[in-house]
Amino acid sequence: MTENVRSEMLSIIDEHIIEFSHSFPKFINILNQVKEKHDEFHTMYQTVISVMVFVFQTMTDSMIISKYFVLADKDHDKRFMRGKMAVILNEGFKKLYGFETKTKSKSEWSKLKSVLHFFPEEINHQYHELTTLLEKHSTSSSWWRDDRNVETHLDCEKLFISRNKELIEGKVMLESLMLFDALYAVYLFLGNMHSCIQNTLNEQYLNGELKE
Fold it and tell me: Is the pLDDT of residue 144 over 60?
């Protein structure tokens, strides 16, 4: 990447990190407020907010490791950061959506399915449409499974081979967008869910249906 592209990318990454860092505490506070309330509505709300917290955290981690990959000015530092990025890419998507029946059933995306009956048809349609896209995404590659395994299990011989694969900075950054784009799509969908919840609450309040 040219220095201009590098500088512009770092600026965009920092803007996103600041944006999500400001939102993250607000939703942690909401999560703490609703987790002690066990009625059906607050259980649904807690599910939505907990997935939002996961998305905020994972998007931020993905951007931070991308930032320090770009900033690294030594070859061995860049290769190290690329390896750690592979861990986030694999683990992040596995927890977001999953790769096979076992991981899909425990994913954050799967949790949302259990509360869809609270939401209107439009939200349900968006969920199923996004599910189709995430499913295609899950089978688009191995999602750096081998790299993730050698990085986490510290198999030194395989780690040496993995770290010494050809390193093309722009290609690595494009690969990092695979997770970011998936998370961002889910983030926008969660925003729709949250707006729906807020609008419903406001309507109930104005109608005198919502009690203190």
Answer: yes
Cα–Cα dist 17/37, whole Å: 31
Res 207 pLDDT > 60: yes
Phi/psi class of residue 136: alpha, beta or left (left: φ > 0; alpha: ψ in -120 to 50)?
alpha
Report CA-CA distances (Å) from 126 to 49, 57, 120, 142.
18, 23, 10, 26
Q: List pLDDT tens digits, range 156-206.
A: 899 999 999 999 999 999 999 999 999 999 999 999 999 999 887 667 656
Helix, strand and coil percent figures for the chain, each rounded to 5: 80, 0, 20
Plot region of 26 (φ>0 → left; ψ -120 to 50 → alpha; else → beta): alpha
* 84-116 pLDDT per residue, tens: 999 999 999 999 999 999 999 999 999 999 999
Q: 57, 181, 38: which is closest to 108 by C-alpha?
A: 57
Q: How far apart are CA 56 and CA 148, in angstroms?
A: 22
Residue-level length of the chain = 212
Give how far the C-alpha of residue 165 lies from the chain's centroid of Cα atoms, to the nearest Å. 27
- Provide the whole-model pTM: 0.89
CA distance to 68, 138, 164, 211, per residue, from 77 (Å): 9, 29, 12, 57
